[in-house]
Amino acid sequence: MKRFRRRRSPRFSGQSFNKLIPNMITVLAVCFGLSGVRFALAGKWEFAVAMIVLAAVFDTLDGRMARLLRAQSKFGAELDSLSDFVSFGVAPGIIVFLWALEPLTNFGWMAVLFYATCCMLRLARFNTRLDDDKPSFAYNYFTGVPAPAGAGLALLPLMLDFQVGFGPALAPWAVAGWLVVVGLLMVSQVPTFSFKRMKVPQPMVLPILIGAGLVIAGVVSAPWFMLALLIIAYLGSIPLSVIAYRRLLKEAEQMTAAAPVVTDPNGMADSPTGAVEPSSGDRPAKLH
């Protein structure tokens, strides 16, 4: 009798479902951002701002999930940039315009266009500089305010209004000027802290966890007050980041100048012995 060989089930080519999870999170983020515009059109300002906050949360999760699942790809990086532009460039600008800048007509819309353009340029600059060689300490800093933080700064007047209730009609020109300032911060060369890559000393772990618990309790109890306080604290950290960056840059220049130069037998000068090229592990991983 002939032996019947067991047929193997066919294997399907393509990506696994796990590889798609980061991209699905990115799509959720852009859906939250556009939903913020929908709530703004209905006059539900608190829901509109909450949608942008959720978009920022999911924008943080997609990159983390991509690195965890080793699902980084060029497609995911481009998708993330487009999502950031919609969620943190277009949506906050439209929300602020509908909330306070409509009385200014064309001038209010010009402020919105300026903010959105600066966000677009900031994202393009970030993507083109991912492979640039920089000192190892520079990877702990962003160049300019990142897009999610820029959206939070743009929506700060709304959060203060939710808490204090001063009303947008009192100072539409001030809101327009603030939107322009936030756009300039995003495209500026000001170094800002990148808290994602900062290492926490062991004695500070417990106090930071306690502080995180207090922040979460504050967000649950008084969300707009706590979110506004966090954004104001971030704004206050920008001068500190500039001082810290300049100090580290000065120390690096002094170490490079003090390091001896080694000359090889062919008469060619090598790099200083104290200089260390940043390894690929020091560079921030590309988005999924």
- Report, as a whole number of angstroms, the end-to-end distance: 55 Å
Give the beta-strand count: 4
- Unreliable residue runs: 273-288
Please provide the ordered H/E string of secondary-structure elements.
Answer: HHHHEHHHEHHEE
Q: Can you count the helices?
A: 9
Average pLDDT figure: 81
Report the β-strand fraction as a percent range.
Answer: under 5%
* Cα shape: globular
Helix/strand-derived category reads: mainly alpha
Radius of gyration: 24 Å
Structure description:
- With 288 residues, the chain is mainly alpha-helical.
- A hairpin with a 5-residue loop joins strand 3 and strand 4.
- Helix 3 runs antiparallel to helix 4, helix 5 packs antiparallel against helix 7 and helix 6 packs antiparallel against helix 9.
- The longest helix has 36 residues.
List keywords for this structure.
288 residues, mainly alpha, 9 helices, 65% helix, globular
Summarize the structure.
This protein is mostly helical. It has helices spanning 17-41, 45-69, 74-101, 106-128, 147-154, 156-164, 172-187, 205-221, 223-258; strands spanning 141-143, 191-193, 261-263, 269-272. The chain is built from nine helices and four strands.
Write the layout of secondary structure elements.
Elements (H helix, E strand, L loop, with lengths): L16 H25 L3 H25 L4 H28 L4 H23 L12 E3 L3 H8 L1 H9 L7 H16 L3 E3 L11 H17 L1 H36 L2 E3 L5 E4 L16
Antiparallel strand pairs: 1-2, 3-4
